[in-house]
Specification:
- The protein is of the alpha/beta class.
- The chain has a five-stranded mixed sheet, with helices on both faces.
- It is built from eleven helices and five strands, in the order E-H-E-H-E-E-H-H-H-H-H-H-H-H-H-E.
Length: about 260
């Protein structure tokens, strides 16, 4: 590769963590370009015609969506693999990736944002970790407007947040029911299914190996949300996957 791949990301986002983890698992040097939620839209829309991150630029290609990023990485650097070699196991791993992408990711995001967006200082500290001081101050000033847009865009209200909390609990039920005697979701080794489930649960579990620090003094609602899961096997499994497999990163980090 003539130039380093660039991952356009949010620091705290679990879908972005899914892509980061895949790049780090593959041992690929890359650059992280951290954007500010809400203010990222012009940059990403210009690049991709849509507004979601992560976006990976690699060898002249621009790839949006964490699942498509992992597919691309698996084709370009098969080792160490994330897709099982056995066709049946591979199909199962991809089915579980899709399930957690649909049933855990968006609902945990809504539940967590519902819990933290009301605390402007905490939310801004969470979202601006790679930002320069001036950008942090400006973002904090405009955050009430950003918060309103985020709540509308993500459908965050009391009713839908309650529904999402229920869906997160059901996703954890599925996670725990799928665990094999090996401790993994498919077969006896770490696959895309494990990476996806663990990465998407990270904002709830907050494993120490997550590449960005969680701000101190979270809102009470966020503390209660996490407390509902700390004794669950799935919570401990996420911690274990991070401990075993998150590993070291070759990323260069800078704000966009």
């Amino acid at each position: 590769m003539s130039e380093l791949p660039v991952l356009w990301q949010f620091t705290a986002s679990h879908y972005n963590e899914k892509a980061r983890w895949a790049l780090d698992w593959k041992g690929l040097p890359y650059r992280r370009r951290s954007l500010l939620p809400g203010l990222h839209v012009p940059t990403i829309f210009w690049m991709t015609g849509q507004k979601s991150v992560p976006v990976l630029t690699i060898d002249g290609l621009t790839i949006a969506d964490s699942t498509r990023i992992i597919e691309t990485l698996e084709m370009r650097k098969p080792d160490p693999p994330l897709f099982p070699a056995d066709p049946v196991a591979r199909r199962r791993a991809l089915e579980l990736e899709d399930f957690f992408d649909r049933e855990l990711g968006p609902h945990l995001r809504r539940a967590v944002f519902d819990a933290v967006l009301g605390d402007s200082d905490y939310a801004c500290a969470l979202f601006t970790q790679d930002a320069k001081p001036l950008a942090r101050r400006a973002y904090r000033t405009m955050f009430p407007a950003v918060r309103l847009v985020m709540k509308i865009d993500l459908g965050i209200d009391d009713e839908r947040a309650a529904l999402s909390r229920d869906r997160v609990a059901r996703a954890f039920d599925r996670l725990e029911s799928e665990l094999q005697p090996s401790g993994y979701l498919v077969g006896d080794r770490f696959t895309v299914a494990d990476l996806t489930a663990a990465a998407l649960a990270a904002p709830l579990v907050q494993p120490p190996e997550f590449p960005y620090a969680w701000p101190p003094s979270p809102p009470d609602a966020a503390v209660r949300l996490r407390a509902d899961y700390v004794d669950r096997p799935g919570f401990r499994w996420v911690q274990e996957m991070y401990r075993r497999h998150r590993g070291r990163s070759l990323a260069e980090v800078r704000a966009a």
